[in-house]
Amino acid sequence: MIKSVMAFYILLYCTFSFAQVEQNASLTERVKVISDSIIKYSQKTQNIPGVVVSVVHEGELIFSQGYGYAHEPNGIAVDPTSTQFSVASISKTFTYTALMQLIEEGRLSMDDEVTQILDLSQNAQEFGTLKIRHLFTHTAGFEDGYLGHWMANVSSENPPLLEYVKSLAPKRVRQSDEFVVYSNYASALAGAVIEKVTGQPFKLYMLNNVLLPLGMRNSTFENGSLIEQLGLTRAVGHYWNGVSYDTYGDAYVSNGMTPAAGLLTTANDIAKFMIAHLEEEKDDILFAKTKKRMHDPLFGNHAFLDQNAHGFWTSSTAGFETLFHTGSVSGTLSHMVLVPKLKFGIFISANISNSIDLVMYFIDTMLSTLFPSELNALERFEGTDLKQYSGEYLNLRRNFSTYEGAFEFPITVSSTDEFLIIKLFDKTHRLISIGKHRFIDQLTGEKVVFQPKEGGGFWLLRGNTVFEPIGTVDNTTSFIKLLFVVAGMSVLVLMIALNRKIYSVKKLQATYCVSIPLILLACSFLLQLAMVALTINIQGPDVEILMVKGPPISFHIFQGLLIVNVVIAAFSAFMLVKRWDQVQWHIVSKLFHSLFVGLCISSFFWAIYLHLLTPFLTF
């Protein structure tokens, strides 16, 4: 899909540029033409304020370039040498490189128990022994969470790393080695292990043992402390609101999440890290044999899918086996790809989060154009009953114990005669069957597996992501649909009440003893729905605030209204039962109002089931 749509328009724009580069032109010249053509066109058509690129080959930085603005409103240009980008989860490859240093020194082993090293609570052992290897492979079984602690600012609490991993530890919710489910907390534990074993603060160890040995002097795990000292600039995250750019605020990755996502670096600096990993026969920050071990696949959800390789992810891009990692935070998106066979590496970062199409197309086009290879044609696997996979699936990478889990919405899988259709965020993906339970995503080329689930149904396995089939009660979307139904009934309740002109009646009769609480309930429920709408429509820079301060005030008002509404609904139900024979309503009206009250009460208990009232009430 990307190649058939995006490529068409880009190639129309850059055909003449490609044609100008002769076949005997240097690799650098060809890289520059491809990079300039794709990025400049994308900036014009996709509202991308700033992009930076660096490309390495055979131990050398052969190309680096900044495009557009690091801070568009202030007109600060992107520079590959001096503009720091927050590379988010690419930081993990640095953290795990440091962990491999300790392993090759014999100070750690893959089977050492994390709970003993860090003196974690016994709850951390609930689903099996937690070992160092589980931190590499994201198989420790932790639930996920972001709100109120993932980022920090000058006015928020920001506990140090070792305190964070103990006081804000998420629960383990599945057995070790059951599934690869991406975990930022696992990487935070990796950083804490480094700090505990070495006796040095994580940030200092990374500086002295990874960054400075590679000559990455414009990079840091500190929160922007080098920017003013060294005359650097910072690429600020942007959000296109339809008219202009909004910029993200001054929040930064918290101390606890620094090993997972805290690196600030420049394109030219990270090129040195790529070179170090691509020069597998050289001893530098790691011994040659340790690098090769780190690049070997370690664990995956299925043999058909991409694997985890000691902190990197493996994939096949343009016909080559690659190591890669992606990172996204606060309006920036970064991608790093290494091709060990070619000793070729690409880093690209954009300071707007909707740049995923550009980033993935850039990588694929760069490799396939510079190093064309024959790809095996895929044959469609016939005879698969596609309808068996239809349904709604929820990501295992979510919170299972608090309200935060309700913010994870399901994906829908449907089928046609030829394709499986997955609606994921704002994109529709078509999957082609190429084997039993095996599919290829036409949009991204990604492999997908439907693995039979004990008891019926399928797990949906997609890279390092696992989705489980869910029913109605586990579905936040269904819950919100119920709220809309009850809101519609609330409007009818108000219309019926106004039609009876109850405010003009001075004498309080039995009918009005029932009507008044129903009116209050209808008004309160409409306000509750308004709070839901305000909460789920938060986007752009406001999301960053949630990671610092937690849920917005609208969510807390929603929680309060849930309790208020169930009290009013219970009273309304009591009055309906008590005065059923006295109320002068048609039987249809009585049944309608009874259903209205019943659904209000049901929504309260459903909210408890979804943990929406934590920490107040939960099952």
Description:
Helix 1 crosses helix 2, helix 14 packs antiparallel against helix 18 and helix 15 packs antiparallel against helix 17. The N terminus is likely disordered. Strands 3-2-1-15-14-13-12-11 form an eight-stranded antiparallel sheet, sandwiched between helices. It has an eight-stranded antiparallel beta barrel with strand order 16-17-18-19-20-21-22-23. The protein is built from 18 helices and 23 strands. The chain is of the alpha+beta class.
Calculate the terminal CA-CA distance, rounded to whole Å.
44 Å
Overall pLDDT score? 88
Q: Compute the CA-based radius of gyration.
A: 28 Å
Helix content: 40-55%
- Could you describe the largest sheet, including whether it forms a barrel? 8 strands, antiparallel
Strand order of the largest sheet: 3-2-1-15-14-13-12-11
Strand content: 15-25%
Structural class: alpha+beta
Number of helices: 18
User: How many distinct beta strands?
Assistant: 23
Unreliable parts: 1-5, 7-13, 502-508
Query: Per the principal axes of the C-alpha atoms, what is the gross shape?
Result: globular
